Amino acid sequence: MRFNPKARLDARRTSDAGRGAGGRSAGRSGGIPVPGGLAGGGVGGLLVVLVIVGLSMVLGGGDSPTAYDTGRMADTDRYASCETGDDANRSADCARVAVENSLYDYWSSTLPEQSATAFTPERSLRTFSGAVSTGCGSASADVGPFYCPVDQTIYLDRTFFADVLQDRLAGPSGAFVEPYVLAHEYGHHVQNLLGTMGRVRTQQGARSDAVRLELQADCYAGMWAGSATGTQDAQGAVLISDLTRQDVEQAIAAATAVGDDRIQSSSGGQVDPDSWTHGSARQRVEWFTRGYREGTLDACDTFAPGAL
Ligand SMILES: [Zn+2]
């Protein structure tokens, strides 16, 4: 994946909370409410794609801006120097900003084109290490990347990709893994805007609404990947100059590495379909690929009868 060196980056929606108190071992105590009984043991730490379903059902997508006090969101200015695609080609931090810009551009046009829902951007793509305070409660790095519908923010532990995905899960080390995960979390933001989160009634089992929600976020990630080279900066310059077949295969490999069945196996447990909340590796690859090929919200209707 290469960025157009001349593209202008907009870092206004990307922030960094720095290193939060508590660290990895103590961070769980705050307790993000985790659906589906995922809080037990260390398993929660392996979930790449956590979504706070319960809170979103209560608060819906149109929560008031006062629901979360942005004044408390201190920022380390980590992304202040990310100005161009050239910066993104040199720095993983700036690549994160560029991918966010691409997701923003894609969904700001695609959502109004394909639905009656107006697009509003996420509040922030917020990175942290150790622990972080969020609109959904405090979180430690153990929970992995997640989207909080209350403050409409994607949270990403900066050490996650090195520590968890590669070491513990033996996942791929490719440069497109993080973009895939960001695109998945952005898919949850789109679901929040569409009101899809409110449709989740069942939390556990291979055909549960929670699994459908996760597979749909993978499908939305595929939609973006299929059109990523068409996305532009605010001046109309191409953002992503090159996205190869190999990049897409890395994303698919990442989906394979983070399927619930793989997560359960590598954490020492038996594979147990009744507790799946993210779908199997095969399902995740299928839905990502479907979104990539079809490019429509309709093709990503995992809630349709017979879809799973
Ligand atoms: Zn997810």
Automatic annotation (TrEMBL):
- Gene Ontology CC annotations of this record: membrane
Q: Where in the cell is it found?
A: Membrane
Q: Is Thylakoid found in the keyword set?
A: no
Compositionally biased region (Gly residues)? 19-34
Keyword entries, A-Z: Membrane, Transmembrane, Transmembrane helix
Membrane-traversing stretches: 38-59
**What is the name listed in the Swiss-Prot or TrEMBL entry for this protein?**
Peptidase
